[in-house]
Specification:
- There is one protein chain.
- With 447 residues, this protein is mostly helical.
- It has one domain.
- 83% of the residues lie in helices and 0% in strands.
- The protein contains 14 helices and no strands.
- Helix 13 packs antiparallel against helix 14.
- The longest helix is centred in the middle third of the chain and has 74 residues.
- It is globular, with a radius of gyration of 21 Å.
- The two termini are 34 Å apart.
Length: 447
């Protein structure tokens, strides 16, 4: 196989702590700004259009999550192989992986969009819409399904650019995307009165700007992401799909989480319950973005060091990542306990019933963040080192299987409180399981 003397910046020689911060800070800032985007969307929709519109956008959110899931599935799967190839100094193989991933993500997104668009009204009801929220759900889906390919290409390019030594440019693109999205949301909702479709168009146009900014990477002398003629490789595609599957499952898990909780609250507390959950879900997505930023910093490093067979650097990186995850989790828990009312007020002036449900929900739900970050870091570690089975178990358990089990058991016993506690309980159980596995097997995390 053709090799190259290429070195991805100074990953082989610089202190691990310095490298970790160089990747962590841009990733966290970029994801924090995306989180601000999420809050801005919810704040503007809730204040301008009311609780039903906010609930409608929340119900449609899983479709957006599916597009993100596909981009992570292909993007992380391919980027993991790309960084391993670069760590092994196999430059041409890395370029082949990038080209294959780009074509794959475009084709897959278009196919999904066409199929879902043709059945968007039944899809809206399947997601949990009712007569009050259906118009808002339909308007949002109309835009997202037509232009979803822009979202997936932007996300995939961001992943690859970080893996090609460009975390600062990826952060800059996210900053510009966030600022434009906020500006366009204000214009489309408050000035031009475009409604929910305006909020969706703001997201699409901002993502298009992100693609333009990230394209600057391809003009850099240090760029290794060059196009190679595309020829479908079944084995490569299968490897990408296998490695990236836990990330896809993670985003699917977010959709399962959203749909199942929307249905549970609709049955238990009606539209007020769905609106309260929509508020919580916006805040939850903010914190998930921070943990995703941590994972985005860890993945290129672990993948590269694995390709370079440098276990010492893997061990040090994981120690830093786990400490950071725990610190973020404690900070999030404290914020939820002491600032729940303020967080709810950001999204509008709601009825006492909605406000009470949302505040109590934040108090209970935020217990999960003590474990969420560490679970996510461990999933990223297993995925980046080729243990896809363990990564898949973590993801499927915490966001689908165990979560649904608790969602079936706790509400009949505790009512609405049981719905809020389903995720904290599942995160704790998964964390305990991972800890037991780590005790039994020597790994870079514990040795």
């Amino acid at each position: 196989m053709q090799t190259s003397s290429v070195q991805l910046n100074d990953l082989d020689t610089a202190p691990v702590g310095r490298i970790f911060l160089r990747y962590l800070i841009p990733s966290m800032i970029g994801m924090l700004l995306m989180a601000v985007n999420i809050v801005a969307d919810g704040t503007m929709v809730g204040n301008r259009l009311g609780a039903a519109a906010l609930a409608g956008v929340g119900i449609a959110a899983p479709v957006y999550s599916i597009f993100v899931a596909v981009s992570l599935w292909i993007g992380i799967g391919a980027a993991t192989k790309y960084s391993a190839a670069m760590g092994a100094k196999e430059l041409m193989e890395g370029r082949r992986i990038f080209s294959h991933a780009l074509v794959s993500i475009i084709l897959i997104t278009i196919i999904i969009g066409v199929i879902a668009y043709s059945a968007r009204t039944p899809l809206a009801y399947l997601l949990g819409a009712n007569a009050e929220t259906l118009p808002f759900v339909s308007d949002y889906l109309y835009v997202i399904l037509i232009f979803g390919v822009i979202l997936t290409v932007e996300n995939m390019l961001s992943i690859f650019i970080r893996n090609d030594g460009g975390p600062t440019l990826a952060m800059s693109a996210l900053i510009a995307t966030s600022v434009l999205n906020i500006v366009l949301n204000y214009l489309f909702l408050f000035v031009y009165d475009f409604g929910v479709q305006g909020a969706a168009f703001a997201t699409i146009l901002a993502s298009a700007l992100g693609i333009l900014i990230m394209s600057l990477h391809f003009f850099k002398k240090t760029n290794n992401l060059k196009w190679r003629r595309f020829t479908f490789d079944r084995r490569l595609f299968a490897a990408i799909v296998l490695i990236g599957f836990p990330c896809f499952l993670s985003e699917v898990g977010i959709s399962v989480f959203t749909i199942s909780h929307n249905i549970a609250f609709e049955r238990t507390a009606g539209t007020d319950g769905v609106a309260a959950f929509a508020i919580l879900n916006y805040v939850h997505n903010v914190l998930l973005m921070l943990f995703l930023g941590l994972g985005s910093a860890v993945q290129p490093l672990i993948s590269y060091y694995r390709g370079a067979k440098n276990n010492k650097r893997i061990r040090k990186t994981m120690q830093l990542a786990m400490g950071t995850a725990l610190g973020l989790g404690i900070a999030a828990l404290l914020a939820g306990q002491f600032a729940a009312g303020t967080l709810v007020s950001l999204f509008g002036d709601f009825s006492p019933a909605v406000r009470s449900l949302a505040v109590s929900g934040i108090h209970l739900f935020f217990l999960a963040y003590l474990f969420t970050g560490m679970n996510f870091v461990m999933m990223t570690y297993y995925q980046s080192t080729g243990n896809v089975r363990m990564a898949t178990w973590i993801t499927a358990s915490r966001e689908i299987l165990i979560m649904l089990l608790f969602l079936a058991i706790l509400p009949p016993l505790l009512g609405v409180t049981g719905i809020w506690l389903a995720i904290p309980a599942s995160e704790f159980v998964v964390f305990l399981g991972v800890w037991l596995v780590q005790r039994k097997a020597a790994s870079p995390v514990t040795t």
